Amino acid sequence: MKLFSVATVLASIAATTARTFTVFNACPFTIWPAMFTDLNVGSAVPNFANGWQAASFTSVSFSVPDNWRAGRIWARRDCNFSQNPGPNSCLDGGCNGGLVCDSRTGTGVPPATLAEWTLSADPNIPDNYDLSLVDGYNLPARISNNKGCPVAQCNVDLGPNCPAPLKGPFDSTGFPVGCKSACVGLASFFSWTGDSANCCSGSHNTPQTCPSSGVQFYSYFKSNCPTAYAYAFDDATALFTCPSSAKADYTLTFCP
Ligand SMILES: *[C@@H]1O[C@H](CO)[C@@H](O)[C@H](O)[C@H]1NC(C)=O
């Protein structure tokens, strides 16, 4: 009986383990990382603020529950929260809330490179993770891990060579700090009414009716960053898995 109860205690400890996430700013400038959990999908959240300032070449580490679902981390550029802190406090990636993004409405203003995870506590279901340019690009990024699972990365600065209609926003020196996706940058009557080949919306909301060939400038993003989502249905080349039993720790590096 004694041994059984020890085993039970150990099992319950194992069942509540968490992963260690590290977010490293390897950019030669300050950025403001941000985090969001879609609370409509899951209630487990990381043990860390939803936004922070990261000086160049600094990192933070925090624990993330095994059952973190629909979570995302991105970074904001050129922020100043001194007046009216909110989505427009940064040139891109800003969120409702200011420095710390609102837990319900604090998604980032595009364009922003997104790192996305749905972890799993069920040994039969793997972790899923990806880098996404579906909301555009604002920084190079890499997702790596300590268990030998695939690396997702986009380590090219997509700003300077971004196609003209998508280029920007620009900083005070005129440098492009982002490259919008066609869905956002070429917003038209049809995308706002919900029927857009660039956004895979409306009648284009399936892989069959939204081929990558119908998404303008798809190849600019995909050829430079083949292991990142360049449109909504890029699962085959950009969605990665890691056995949840491996309990991988993940590192997100900006400007890898
Ligand atoms: C932030 O904005 C305030 C108000 O506009 C300004 O006074 C301050 O110089 C800005 N800070 C930086 C670091 O640019």
From TrEMBL:
Disulfide bonds join 27-255, 79-90, 95-101, 149-242, 154-225, 162-179, 183-199, 200-210. Keywords: Disulfide bond, Signal. SUPFAM superfamilies: Osmotin, thaumatin-like protein. SMART domains: THN. Residues 1-18 form the signal peptide. Pfam families: Thaumatin. This is Thaumatin-like protein. It comes from Marasmius oreades (fairy-ring Marasmius).
